[in-house]
Amino acid sequence: MKREHNIVRNQHKTRYMPGLDGLRAVAVIAVIIYHLNPQILSGGFLGVDTFFVISGFLITSLLLHEYRETGSIDLKNFWIRRFKRLIPAVVFLLMVLVSYMAIFHLERLAVIKADFIAALIYLANWWFIFEDVSYFEALEANPLKHLWSLAIEEQFYIIWPVILLLLLVLVKRMSRIWLITFGISLVSLIVMIVLSVPLEDNSRVYFGTDTRAHSLLIGVLLAYIFPPFRLKKEIDTGSKVVLNLIGFVTLGILIYMFTFVSASHYWIYAGGLYAIAVLTSLLIAASVHPSTFFANKLLGNPMFVFIGQRSYSLYLWHYPIIVLSNTYFVAGQVPIYVIIIQVILTFVMAEVSYRFIEQPFRRNGFKAFGFSDVINRTRLIVVGALGVMMVLFLTGVLDDPIDKVLETREQQRDYEEMAFTSSIKTIEQSIVNEESIRTLEPLFIGDSITVDIQDEVLYRMPYATVDGEIGRQLWDVETLIQGNYANYTETDDIVVLQLGTNGVIAVDDMQAVIDQLDEATIYVINTRSPRDWQADVNSMLNEITENNENVHLIDWFGISEGHPEYFSNDGVHLTPLGKQVIVQEIVDKIDEMSLE
Question: CATH classification of 427-594, choosing from 3.40.50.720, 3.40.47.10, 3.40.190.10, 3.40.50.1110?
């Protein structure tokens, strides 16, 4: 079926743009793969930027065409169409999530209650900023976190038509309107650059409407100069060749970006996202022209069109399905059969939403949920039941049972951890010379993993100095050593460095820390962290150990491979067994090097 938002009307006919749905398919597939495993497609999050540029282009094209034909823009009618297009699917998603979580994840409902409200009123992005939520942090993943982008789009749909109408009425000349819009996009870019910080979590920049508006506005700028309603189906061969070439080249570059760009790369916040939006606008130009092979045959192939038509539903459903099912497994070590089930379930729920919620509501509004036939009655009963669950949740009726479940489960976890910790302390540590190890005075510097293992380290090496800090980054360590541990520079001094959980590490910065420690015997622990920077961090640590004779690698990534029992569900922090194993490996390595 031809979708309203992919249709551009002119005086003579209605033209559907299959290439645009094909591009949506590419974008949503990239996002889904990124959320399944960022190690596979570390830049898949850029698919959201593709959606932003498409939205800016398409909405502005429709508004410009309406103004051209009628001399005005019916804002009320536009907002009603957007309401019918977007809100029913989100409400259905939230209803299902409340019902599912009330049965299977009751303890998490209380935690994300405010997130539900923020999602309903399309302010999720600003709520996450206010709550200091990280987009890139996998710990305690929120099944609604992906709705930040829909909030930005809805805010754009409310504000932009008013601004555009004022520009058309007051400024009139399209060249001046283009310059004004371009200027606004540059302001958004500048705000992003000013607020971003190298080597830190830039979620504030990533979530902000102010800092992401430029991607939408790049699409707007394309609509000014390349409106679909002015494109001719018959153009000369040379122009076709150029458009096809632009399409293939820009699509290739975008796929390369999806594959190799990382959210930890500072350049994407220092103008990179703006450049990617410009690249995407060129790709859109090639995707919407009615004369090109690229638009009609490649991106417009039936499979891509099918996926693209359901891209909104796929985006809505994939993330909560992945997040909630992953709670039963260690992050980064989810079995392949589970991933296959996640993908299948995503497509099934997206199809249900598309066929039985989105399409009927778009065509018939609330009449689609009447009593006129069996299908409508069934739909009304199901949606009504889900709605009751959500109302009970939002009004606090479920809060008391949630609190009781939380208290019971917390007590059980505490009991299990105490019992297990007590039992492992009785295990005889006979692999190395315990007496010699207990007399050592090593220095441990690290992040939350070092905090995790502190008690186990001090149990094995009571004279050790353990300096761990949650969220610690490498750039904090150079100052820390200079101020507190400048005397750890001799061959007999032992320093254990555990870093890389929270972000990328630059080789030069790590080498500067190594140089500070001079001739000390240094052990670096590589990372197992299901983030897109894991491979970069471990590769850098390999390089450091190869280039420095006094630096030795403890391969925690390799040791822990295939051992989900070492980790809590986040795939990073350690269970009591994991703490014991990693400390034993450190002790073994120190003992091994002392014998050489």
Answer: 3.40.50.1110
